Amino acid sequence: MNSTTQAVAPEPAGVHAAGSSAVVQTHELTKRFGDFVALDRLSISVDRGQILGFIGPNGAGKTTTIRILVGLSKPTSGHATISGIDCTGQSKKIKRAVGYMPDKFGVYDNMRVREYLDFFAAVYGLPPRQRKQRIAEVMDTTNCTYMQDKFVESLSHGMQQRVGIARIMLHDPEVLILDEPANGLDPQARIEMREILLNLAAMGKTLIVTSHILPELSRICNTVAILTGGKLRAFGSLDSVMKELCPRQTFEVQLLDQAQAQQAADWIEGWKDDDEIVTVMTGQSLVRLETNRTERALADLLRELVTRDIHVAQFREVPSDLEDAFVSVTRAGDDDSVADDAKAAS
Ligand SMILES: Nc1ncnc2c1ncn2[C@@H]1O[C@H](COP(=O)(O)OP(=O)(O)OP(=O)(O)O)[C@@H](O)[C@H]1O
């Protein structure tokens, strides 16, 4: 894939025309630090109730984008809106429309969860009469009610993350931006976090979630944007990005007898096209085939193997995941930068 390839989800008719349902929109958003381009003409849109998985390696430009979206930084050019509000010109209004949870939890000594939320409710300007009810609501949504009398400092990391979400929900923003919410969570806490985020989307909140834990992210997001080196490399529905970036499927042929693995691999090697890849998994009775053949062709392959007295115990697809897509994009990004360096040197 080259650097400009974008897997863009088919848009339902009229969605991004006048009366657009996009809640978050960026157009050619660019940020330079001196000569360095941290973000290069980023254009994305996220609809109401969607969860955008915003991914990229360290230094890709994710935080730079988020800082612009939440009104903490101004773009060099381009623009961004949330619920139609300009992220740069109307930063006060933006702060009401967005809840932002950074990857680090602040230190709040000697505050119980209830007091902590009350403090932030006051910061958000909620009238005292409404605070109690709103705090009860956000604690309920984030499953924090049982810990309301505990000191924030005494909570586990997973519990603190949930309190963090409760905090950014207090002013009932339309958009929630969460930086690495699953980082450092144990499996149980991850499951709880996943359920909360899916529930928030079902309530109509629009979520932007960054994460380096891609298998986890792919379980919640329906839209993906992949950035490398400040450039958008892929954007669209999870399905369309996966199809675009991982067009080849991987199949495994599990043999009953390890001694037959090489024999099976040799036969498949003669059967396959040049661009398909056969690998014998060392020390295992397993042969792997990367292919884009039809199911019928694969059924023929299996029959041929069996006809040749190769004892196939299992023939199965290895599903691609977001990590494969990510690797394919970051590799393409590396190739591009090598090509750019070569161009600059010549
Ligand atoms: N204030 C600044 N001055 C100069 N360069 C900056 C500044 N802020 C960010 N950068 C650079 O911009 C690039 C993008 O940084 P950014 O923090 O947006 O990346 P990221 O995708 O959030 O990375 P990570 O996953 O590590 O948080 C990096 O090369 C970073 O060093």
Which residues form runs of ≥5 with pLDDT under 50? 1-19, 341-346
Q: Helical percent range?
A: 25-40%
Cα gyration radius (Å): 24 Å
> Cα distance, first to last residue?
24 Å
Oligomer: single chain
User: What percentage of the residues does DSSP assign to strands (E)?
Assistant: 25-35%
Question: Could you give a quick summary of the protein structure above?
Answer:
The protein is 38% helix and 26% strand. It is α/β, with parallel strands linked by helices and 346 residues long.
Protein architecture, described:
Strand 1 and strand 2 form a beta hairpin. Helices cover 38% and strands 26% of the residues. The relative contact order is 0.14. The protein contains eleven helices and 14 strands. Helix 8 (238-245) packs across helix 11 (322-345). The strands form three sheets. A six-stranded mixed sheet has the order 6-7-8-3-9-10, sandwiched between helices. Strands 2-1-4-5 form a four-stranded antiparallel sheet, with helices on one face. By secondary structure, it is an alpha/beta fold. Residues 1-19 and 341-346 have low confidence and may be disordered. The chain starts with 21 loop residues before the first strand and ends with a helix.
